[in-house]
Amino acid sequence: MIRENQKYINKLLVVLDAVTLLLSVRIAWYIRFNTGLLMRYKGEYPLERYFVPLALMVPVYIVLYYLFKLYSAYRHRSIFEETFNLLKANIVGVLIFTMILYIFKYVDYSRYMIAVFFIVNIVMTSFERCIIRYVLRCIRKKGYNLKHILFVGLNYDTVDFINKIKSNRHWGYSILGILSDYYDEDKADSNSYMAFEEAAACLDGGSIFGKINELDRYLSSYDVDEVFITLPFKEYNKLNSIIEVCEKNGVKAQIIPEFSKFLSSKPYIENIDGTAVISMRYIPLDNILNKTLKRIFDIVLSVFFILLTLPITILTCIIIKLTSQGPVIFKQERVGLNKKSFTMYKFRSMKIQNKEEEKSEWTTKDDSRKTKFGAFIRKTSIDELPQFFNVLKGDMSLVGPRPERPYFVGKFKEEIPKYMVKHQVRPGITGWAQVNGWRGDTSIEKRIECDIFYIENWNFWFDVKIMFLTVFKGFANKNAY
Fold first, then answer.
1. Do the strands 268-272 and 275-279 form a parallel or antiparallel pair, or are they unpaired?
2. What are phi and psi of 386, to 5 degrees?
3. pLDDT for 358
4. Do residues 93 and 36 touch, judged by C-beta distance below 8 A?
5. How far is residue 368's CA from residue 357's CA, in Å, rounded to a whole number?
6. Contact, 56 vs 96, CB < 8 A?
7. 0.85 exceeded by the pTM?
């Protein structure tokens, strides 16, 4: 029933998206040629001349929306994720449309109108999706379009997920009950019985509480859409028979393993000659195509930035040489990809130190070791400019977790869980932690949380977003000292 509802919702979305696209073309034409908001030219601008080419793009946009997962179920997805996917689809759509105009030499088509259409369509489609999302949530809260689910097995993950469902009514889950062989106080260990007590307290009085061997009867008697298997380790011998019963009744089964707390938010399942192997962490940059795309992006942009900042680089070199003794470039050992050490370059911002101080001294806000000019270039991140050459060498990337000195890597490795995960990708000049304010003498735990989020959720547009944010709030930062 739920799958049928999703089909109807998707058909409705396709129709609404097509109507919204056509309305966006009409509104864009009106804004461009009839409002005076943009530059006006003398002459006639018939609607059909500008309407028809963009209207013919509607099927292309619908396909793009499908490819960018705008028609997949989004009970658990945020509106921000959906809007970001919509933005990406529209960027690709405008590029395709512009390319078609170029190929067919349609040179007189208004570029202003394309830009206005791009903005109007994103705004209107986002508004349309917000309304649909709001209506569906209201319907679910009233008890319609619900997914009726049954838990098989009982542990604290069961309790945790039940609490999440009850806190997110808009997901549209209706919990029918729990089947477990260990909810009897006389037969269960203390942990199993306590988990059952907590789960029962979360559910309604009319919920099902039965034994696992009754699953077939319950699936035949009740309208169950999905089964969540939350077996404790000691009951995993029952897993095969449970899945067979679910498949026999045509009910979707999902497993929440008891070891899920050890998995990342995006674990990766690999098929090795017919054997499913679960990786604790999915790293998109392990993919050769993603890795190549990022490397090309790094090389092209680092060359561009080296040329762009050349006057600043030359001026900085001159001032450092005139205002303090010592070399212009400061070289320091850092730990990078696969825990391998490399030499990182920076403009020297401190007085000459002995090697031991360099290895283990943490820079603080009013550090007496900084030169006057050094304090300025650290605050504005000018001291980081030589790292573009680290990027060209392949030691670093433009975006990634910041590399640390070996002394602190050894220290944090023992003190902070998951700290070493950051070394599974190339370190970066800027990163998700830095644009969120976690740089300098700030929380290492928060920094690692951001680094792991970046590693698990990397995509090309995420790098673009971080670069964009770096321009506005990453260079000059209150914690940059």
1. antiparallel
2. -60, -15
3. 57
4. no
5. 13
6. no
7. no
The burial of 201, by beta-carbon neighbours within 10 Å (0-12 exposed, 13-18 middle, 19 or more buried), is given as exposed
Radius of gyration of the chain (CA): 29
Map out the domains of the chain with their CATH numbers.
2-141 (no CATH), 147-262 (3.40.50.720), 288-473 (no CATH)
Measured distance CA(159)–CA(67) in Å, rounded: 35
pLDDT of residue 200: 64
CA dihedral of residues 371, 376, 379, 385 (deg, nearest 10):
-90
Low-confidence ranges of the chain (pLDDT < 50): 1-4, 185-188, 481
| String of DSSP letters for 358-407 | HHHPPP-TT-TTB-HHHHHHHHTTGGGTTHHHHHHHTS-EEESPPPB-HH
Q: Which of 431, 397, 428 is nearest to 300 (CA)?
A: 397
**Tokens 């395709």 belong to which residue?**
96
> Which residues 6+ apart lie within 8 Å of 82 measured at CB?
70, 74, 129, 133
- Give the separation between CA 467 and CA 391, rounded to whole angstroms: 15
Q: Is the dihedral of CA 315, 317, 322, 323 positive or negative?
A: positive
How confident is the model at residue 355, as a pLDDT? 64
- The C-alpha atoms of residue 427 and residue 340 are separated, in whole angstroms, by 11
d(CA 226, CA 243): 12
Residue type, 245: V
- Helix axes 47-55 and 79-103, enclosed angle (nearest 10): 120
Q: Residues 6 or more apart from 154 whose CB is under 8 A from it?
A: 178, 180, 182, 183, 192, 195, 196, 199, 230, 232
Q: What is the pLDDT of residue 146?
A: 77
Q: What 3-state DSSP class applies to 142?
A: coil
Residue 400: predicted pLDDT: 95
Distance CA 425, CA 400 (A): 7
Alpha helices in 399-443 (DSSP H): 406-415, 432-435
Whole-angstrom CA distances from 277 to 58, 83, 164, 347, 466 are: 41, 33, 28, 46, 32
Written as one letter, the residue type at 22 is L
* DSSP notation for 39-65: ---SS---HHHHHHHHHTTHHHHHHHH
Could you report how far apart the first and last alpha carbons of the chain are, in Å? 59
Strand order in the sheet with 147-152: 208-210, 173-179, 147-152, 226-229, 252-255
Note the pLDDT of residue 5.
57
pLDDT digits (tens, 9 = 90+) for 390-427: 999 999 999 999 999 998 998 998 888 889 989 999 99
